[in-house]
């Protein structure tokens, strides 16, 4: 069941979050990882990229990529009490069927095939006239 209502004010925030996630999947689905994808700058703040891109640089160096395999279902929502005119918190209970692979298509070390629930959050900020991810990560308890 849907426990929240999408409002007109939330729509651009949700759209920016979804675009940011798309950039991550698109860029990390390549060998080497596309660290120059224009979407990084469009949908992430510089500080979030400073925290995020080093891990993807390591993937690139190891020729690891993301295979969407069984698909990914995103279910984001804006927390009403975490929203202001220039910031918002998104929570997302993701059904994640993506898997990490080596360049030859075999499972990468530590890959976990199958679909798993992951609670995620993103702090969105209005920067340079657009909504961008300023911080993101996994959060336990969001899918319960």
Q: What labels describe this entry?
A:
144 residues; alpha+beta; 5-stranded antiparallel β-sheet; two-stranded antiparallel ribbon; 3 helices; 7 strands
Task: Report on the architecture of this protein.
The chain has 144 residues and is α+β, with helices and mostly antiparallel strands. It has 3 helices and 7 strands. The strands form 2 sheets. Strands 2, 3, 4, 6 and 7 form a 5-stranded antiparallel beta sheet that branches. A two-stranded antiparallel ribbon has the order 1-5. A hairpin with an 8-residue loop joins strand 3 and strand 4. The mean pLDDT is 94.
What topology does this entry show?
Blueprint: H1 11-28, H2 39-43, H3 46-61, E1 64-67, E2 72-73, E3 76-78, E4 87-96, E5 99-102, E6 116-127, E7 130-138
Antiparallel strand pairs: 1-5, 2-4, 3-4, 4-6, 6-7
């Amino acid at each position: 069941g849907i426990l929240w209502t999408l409002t007109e004010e939330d729509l651009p925030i949700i759209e920016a979050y979804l675009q940011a996630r798309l950039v991550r999947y698109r860029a990390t689905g390549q060998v080497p990882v596309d660290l120059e994808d224009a979407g990084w700058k469009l949908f992430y703040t510089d500080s979030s990229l400073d925290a995020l891109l080093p891990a993807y640089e390591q993937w690139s160096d190891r020729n690891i990529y993301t295979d969407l395999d069984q698909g990914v279902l995103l279910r984001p929502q804006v927390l009403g009490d975490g929203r202001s005119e220039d910031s918002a918190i998104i929570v997302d209970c993701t059904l994640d069927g993506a898997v990490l692979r080596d360049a030859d298509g075999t499972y990468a070390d530590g890959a976990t095939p199958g679909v798993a629930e992951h609670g995620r959050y993103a702090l969105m900020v209005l920067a340079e006239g657009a909504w961008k991810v300023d911080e993101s990560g996994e959060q336990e308890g969001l899918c319960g």
